[in-house]
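Extended Data, panel c. Modelled sequence:
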Amino acid sequence: MKVVQFVPLAALAVLLLDSATDFFPDDPIAGILTPARLTLLLGLVALLVPPERARLRDFRTRLDLPVALLVAAAVAATYGGGHPTAPLRGLLTVVATYYLVVGVRRTRPESWRAVGLLALAGVTAASTSAFSQVTNGTSTGFCRTGLLTDVACDAGGGDVLVRATGTFANPNLLGACLVLLLPFALLAAVAVDERTARTAIVVMVLIGYGALVTTFSRAEYVAAAAGLLVLGGAYWLAPRLADRARRRVLAVVGGLGLLATAGVIWGVSRAGDSLGVRGQAWRAALRVARQNPLGVGLGRSGDAISAAAPGGRVFVHAHNLWLNWLVETGPLGLLAVLSMTVVAWASAGRAAREKSVPGTFGLASLTGFFLAGMLDDPANLDRISVLFWLVLGVVMAEAPAGWRRRPAAPVVLDDDTIVLTVPRQPRPGRRPVAARTGPARGLS
């Protein structure tokens, strides 16, 4: 029975590494059961095995309603338009992955260390593959000049740079993977106490950031830099702002900064072709969205936008995370994804303010990914989507299901673990829930 207790974490490890390296075949074993879905199913079933089985309350999060709304919008778009159900099954798979992560984190609070080490393994696999392409001059089909201008790889000349793709199909997807995982790879350095082990982890993280540079993706550069700035601010600056009003001002300024960035991007996109193909994609996507209030169906935005855009250019998605959901699932899906964005980012910010280590690194990861999502939609790929929902699960497991604060008296057990005694009003016939264990917050 003790072996079963490790199955959920093992399933989480396999899913994360598969997303980073794609070592599982895509062909199903039987029917719709792929190797990844079998792994996910085994992990969820193992969570429900006594004696340490997960309870229903262990899976409840603040995103339950937005996630249910997103699934409802996807179902309406799929069956209302008579589209294939394979993309819908993909959405349900990543949602189940989210709840697997939440269940693992809630039932095994010490697993935050394992999350950091797994992220480090994923970063190492993807980044070393990318460096191999660059150092060996392996053509990936994507090249740029020294001014980060796209050119043909056979153009010749000493200033042509190969854009690394690593374990992905194009450089932007590799960049999105690294933006999501690199903050959590840094989390692995926090999880170890021995100095030489921590040094080795930092070296591997630096290799990961070097691999991000080899993608020559401007959006991912900005996203990674924003993630590092948020990480530094949340870890060093925010705890020094004792006044709650100052922290709120800082949060409002940061939020307004993101909105201003979105506004500038929108304004530039309206001014001719300043953003090149992205401006064309956004204008075509808005036309498609107005004509299809239920959405065009999951995975069909690229074809719809290509048909609506002039010039015969082919698009894969809307080049904007939220706009792509609007095209595919209509206003209902857009509302769900916007709600998920706001709630997840606010929850990560609150966790970071309370000195939650996973919450702080999760805030950096989500900030970078959402910023990159303004100009791209890497989550359109299943593997990046799985990584995104994995990060969501880590972040939302740190927050209670509700927004109301409950008093908690911390009791120090050792240097790394505390017990939060949470007084609750028991329901008739039920024993009160007395304690929750987790990583120390604010302890030196």
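Residues 268-274, 406-444 have pLDDT under 50 and may be disordered. This feature is highlighted in the accompanying rendering.
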